[in-house]
């Protein structure tokens, strides 16, 4: 892991000092379609309202322009035989109005070539250029554990079956873009798939939940330290590096097509807390540093709002952004461009993360700095010969486990789905650097020059 996360053990003083130094060496990039969402395929038919009504389009646009991935366990059930015409019409309207594209998963678990071909024909015709790719199946490396395939089912069996599924898709939608394999952490499956499908796949998809799966006895208070720990961040970086190394020669991008803090709906009281907003910033930018091209965060468009969902239904076609949405949005505000190498030195008691972006469209250097400590941080950002002012935007929350009240430069997302930030703060950069003070458990975007 590159040096963008520094922690020092010891006693816990009221504050700590840190320095951040930025190199012009590019170590990654973050693109325009990086921050996306993931939903269960069955929910398109079963009541979740994917349509250009209410505030959904505005909430998507506020996050930028990205990808809606449809898949999950329900895509592989016998009950899922494709999209109803009315549901597909709503999805068409949503992608057209929002500018977002879609990855759509066909049923491989209970495979029927005729149904897949017919469904692919309809989906391709409805979505057109907004279809990023067709996938086949969800987490096929877990089919045996899930009772969908007999013991002894191998990667060879899967490659044969996914090939038949792709043929069925192409029979209904010739030349349609393909995606996959949407596996979990099974290198023995992902590697052979990537090698065989190189050149045929538009995007490779993988799944990852750093905390594993939630259980009923989980304690948010006991787990929050792990969620924001350097140890978990290092494990995330290693996982991303492992994934990207397996597709490097293929030329196709890697997307975390299904991800969030914990699977199984998330940890109630943690996955829907302010801590998740802080976590997701570091998680997103660590992935970009290690070659990940996009992330789709799992959730729904319903009233199940105590877990990991990004959006919570509060009325007819009206959704409230959860705390994790604010972290995703704050990362979006950092902009797109090259990620530069960062070095941090922190005094005792500190837990600081920092990332630097050289914007693709030009303009000043931008840094994301997070104080993941209960102490105040006094940070000096080295700026070389620059002398002048820098602008600062801040993300704050009432407490780590607060489930509401997150603010970006004092503002919250409106009922209509937009946000109007307060005026940025300013700091003066001198020979000693650009001084930034961060309250405990807060984040800042600093624009220099």
Top keywords for this entry?
alpha/beta; eleven-stranded mixed sheet; TIM Barrel; 449 residues; 9 helices; Immunoglobulin-like; 27% helix; globular; eight-stranded parallel sheet; 2 domains
Describe the structure.
With 449 residues, the protein is α/β, with parallel strands linked by helices. The chain contains nine helices and 21 strands. It folds into two domains: 5-28 and 337-448, Golgi alpha-mannosidase II (Immunoglobulin-like, Sandwich); 32-334, Alpha-Beta Barrel (TIM Barrel), CATH 3.20.20. The chain has helices at 56-62, 85-98, 113-127, 155-172, 187-197, 220-227, 230-247, 274-289, 323-334; strands spanning 5-7, 15-30, 35-40, 67-71, 101-106, 131-136, 179-183, 203-208, 254-259, 294-298, 311-315, 318-321, 337-346, 351-359, 365-371, 376-381, 388-396, 407-408, 425-429, 434-438, 442-448. It is globular and about 70 Å long.
Task: Briefly summarize what is shown.
By secondary structure, this protein is of the alpha/beta class. Helices cover 27% and strands 30% of the residues.
**What is the percent of helical residues?**
25-40%
Mean pLDDT value: 94
Please state roughly what percent of the residues sit in beta strands, choosing from under 5%, 5-15%, 15-25%, 25-35%, 35-45% or over 45%.
25-35%
The rough form would be described as globular
Using only C-alpha atoms, the radius of gyration works out to: 22 Å
Number of domains: 2
How far do the termini sit from each other? Answer: 28 Å
Q: What order do the SSEs take from the amino end to the carboxyl end, as H and E?
A: EEEHEHEHEHEHEHHEHEEEHEEEEEEEEE
CATH superfamily of the largest domain: Glycosidases
Please name the CATH topology of the largest domain.
TIM Barrel
Number of strands: 21
Count up the helices: 9
CATH class of the largest domain: Alpha Beta
The structural class is: alpha/beta
In oligomeric terms, what are we looking at?
single chain
CATH architecture of the largest domain: Alpha-Beta Barrel
**Main β sheet profile:** 11 strands, mixed
Query: Stretches where pLDDT falls below 50 for ≥5 residues?
Result: 7-11
């Amino acid at each position: 892991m590159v040096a963008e996360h520094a922690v020092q053990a010891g006693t816990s003083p009221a504050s700590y000092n840190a320095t951040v130094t930025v190199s012009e060496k590019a170590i990654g990039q973050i693109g325009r379609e990086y921050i996306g969402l993931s939903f269960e395929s069955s929910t398109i038919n079963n009541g979740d309202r994917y349509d250009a009504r209410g505030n959904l389009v505005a909430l998507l646009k506020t996050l930028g322009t990205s990808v809606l991935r449809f898949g999950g366990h329900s895509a592989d059930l016998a009950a899922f035989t494709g999209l109803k015409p009315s549901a597909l019409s709503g999805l068409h309207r949503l992608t057209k109005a929002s500018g977002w594209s879609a990855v759509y998963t066909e049923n491989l678990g209970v495979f029927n070539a005729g149904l897949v071909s017919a469904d692919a024909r309809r989906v391709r015709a409805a979505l057109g250029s907004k279809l990023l790719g067709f996938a086949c199946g969800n987490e096929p490396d877990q089919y045996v554990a899930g009772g969908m395939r007999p013991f002894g089912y191998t990667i060879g069996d899967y490659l044969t079956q996914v090939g038949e599924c792709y043929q069925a898709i192409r029979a209904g939608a010739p030349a349609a873009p393909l995606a996959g394999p949407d596996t979990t952490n099974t290198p023995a499956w992902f590697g052979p798939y990537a090698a065989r499908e190189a050149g045929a796949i538009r995007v490779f998809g993988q799944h990852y939940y750093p905390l594993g799966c939630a259980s009923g006895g989980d304690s948010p208070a006991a787990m929050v330290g792990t969620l924001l720990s350097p140890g978990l961040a290092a494990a995330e970086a290693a996982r991303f590096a492992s994934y990207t190394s397996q597709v490097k020669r293929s030329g196709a991008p890697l997307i975390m097509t299904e991800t969030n803090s914990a699977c199984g709906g998330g940890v109630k009281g943690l996955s829907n807390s302010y801590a998740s907003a802080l976590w997701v910033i570091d998680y997103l930018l660590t992935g970009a540093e290690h070659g990940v091209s996009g992330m789709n965060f799992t959730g729904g468009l319903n009233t199940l709002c105590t877990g990991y969902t990004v959006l919570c239904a509060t009325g007819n076609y009206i959704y409230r952004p959860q705390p994790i949405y604010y972290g995703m949005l704050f990362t979006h505000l950092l902009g797109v461009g090259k990620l530069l190498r960062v070095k941090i030195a922190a005094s005792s008691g500190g837990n600081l993360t920092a990332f630097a972006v050289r914007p693709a469209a030009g303009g000043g250097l931008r840094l994301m700095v997070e104080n993941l400590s209960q102490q105040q941080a006094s940070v000096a950002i080295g700026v070389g010969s620059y002398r002048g002012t820098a602008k600062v935007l801040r993300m704050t929350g009432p407490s780590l486990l607060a489930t509401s009240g997150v603010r970006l430069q004092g503002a919250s997302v409106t009922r209509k789905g937009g946000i109007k930030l307060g005026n940025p703060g300013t700091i003066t950069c001198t020979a000693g650097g650009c001084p930034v003070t961060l309250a405990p458990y807060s984040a800042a975007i600093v624009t220099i020059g």
